[in-house]
Fatty acyl-CoA reductase (Chironomus riparius), 511 residues
Amino acid sequence: MNPNDNQISTISQFYNGKSVFITGGTGFLGKVLVEKLLRSCPGIENIFLLVRPKKGKSIDERLADLTASQCFDLLREKNQKALNKIVLIEGNTSDLGLGISKENRELLCNKVSVIIHSAATVRFVEAFKYSVNTNLRAVNELLKLSKEVKNLKSFVHISTAYSNWFQPVIEEKHYPAEFDPQYIIDLFNSTPDDQLEKLAPKLYGKHVNIYTFTKSLAEDLAVKTPKDFPFAIVRPSVVGASFAEPHPGWVDSYTATTPLVDQSARGVIRALNCHKNYVFDVIPVDIVINQVIAVSWKIAIDSVSKSGISSPLVYNCVSGTTNPITIKEICQYSRDAGKKSPSELMRWYPQTRFYKSRTLFKIDTFLTHYIPALLSDAVDKLRGIDGKAVNYYNKVQYGASQLKFIMNTSIMWKTENGPKLLSSMDKHDQKVFNFDPKIYNWRSYIDDFYFGIRKFMTNDKTACSIAAQKKFARLKYANYIVSGSIAAISLFALVKAGDQIINKDAEKSKI
Ligand SMILES: NC(=O)c1ccc[n+]([C@@H]2O[C@H](COP(=O)([O-])OP(=O)(O)OC[C@H]3O[C@@H](n4cnc5c(N)ncnc54)[C@H](OP(=O)(O)O)[C@@H]3O)[C@@H](O)[C@H]2O)c1
């Protein structure tokens, strides 16, 4: 919100004196959500955050880490005291009752007016039981809690636009799952882990991983559970760095688009196995959060879908329908960002080739990813250092392979509810909580994204340093030499092959 702007926000007013319960508040989306609510809804009473102890850190230590994040820089500058509104609720979404104590449960039931459920394990490869309990059973547990909340005005469930990714057209509606969610919860909790390894993938149907499988079941469960409070589902596509808030390019999650941008800009990825002209649906994190906040307001004031069964309100939160970008363009803009602002962490001169054929892709990656990596490790070995290049490229390849189903599927999402919601908001709120994907220009967004990765994630301060520019120049010439040599060898091989054919024909004609 512009500090000089004295207009009153209707959405912000809705939150006056209300408390919000958020799960997943320590995550990528969660941080932006907490920050935005505290900054743009100053009348909010409390934000109750479900947090688990993790990696030896207590929940209080985790809160200190959270609020120290650069995501909160702007808020700390404008209204540091707002951070005192955060109240920690110790719990774990993979536990029954969300692992919340009796006292805290009572506190939530008495105080909370809005629930936003963002917690999930977003890993595509994850322990099956844990994934089912965290992504699916937690929704059940949260809905049970919600029914006990005395004055619940709205509940927003954050799902994913890929929960039914195999549908060629994804509408803003409920897609029933193939199995009863409760059956899956019971089955996974009563089957030993070693048997689940074999069983689980057989149940996926058209899903390719445990993530979309559990997220689609969670939607189904949430929709089918009878409830007497307004409820909606927001389905973001692939969430990328912030477009504008809290800072352009803010990001702290090295998943999905982040490695694609970073590794294309630094010349790490040079070949991809995908349809280059397919849309890669990226949506900035602040756009998603603005929509989530607006949805929670809207369903509360309209008191919609109280029964929640026949017509859940679903919002496909995607960019591709109105402002599409292809994989080729993402890589191109990222490469341009890398060239504009070279880094000392560059691996090669930025370039990307796209292959639909898996074989050609494998040949290219062997030649351009693995041979240089093997050479680099061999040189390191001679210097007595443990080489890590091959290992690094294994991770890069693994990351890219996880995104294959996204990069090789052309999906059309219907987005009618978002624009309707935006037009129902007053002019002021349309600015403060803008979530129109048409407002950004992809090239400058990707420039900011790459800048954000370096500033907020990799702490790469070498942008445009003399050393970075020298390295970039060296890589550019090395690339000319290598590409030129490959072209010369290919030409030579072609000429040789042509000669052999001509000679054979000549010999045949003599006979
Ligand atoms: N990122 C995307 O591209 C994307 C795209 C579409 C939809 N979404 C959805 O958006 C939501 C948030 O995703 P994200 O990207 O912010 O993920 P994230 O950065 O991995 O954050 C996940 C959040 O969930 C919490 N969580 C996970 N397991 C938990 C457990 N057992 N108990 C308590 N809390 C737990 C994490 O807490 P800890 O800090 O304790 O781990 C963290 O706060 C998810 O529902 C996801 O499905 C994300």
Q: What stands out?
A: The pocket of NAP is lined by residues 24-30, 50, 52, 54, 92-94, 118-122, 134, 158, 160, 215, 236, 238-239, 253, 256 (CB under 6 Å). Residues 10-253+280-325+411-457 form a domain with the Rossmann fold fold (CATH 3.40.50.720). The chain has two domains: 10-253+280-325+411-457, 327-407+459-510. The chain is about 50% helix and 10% strand.
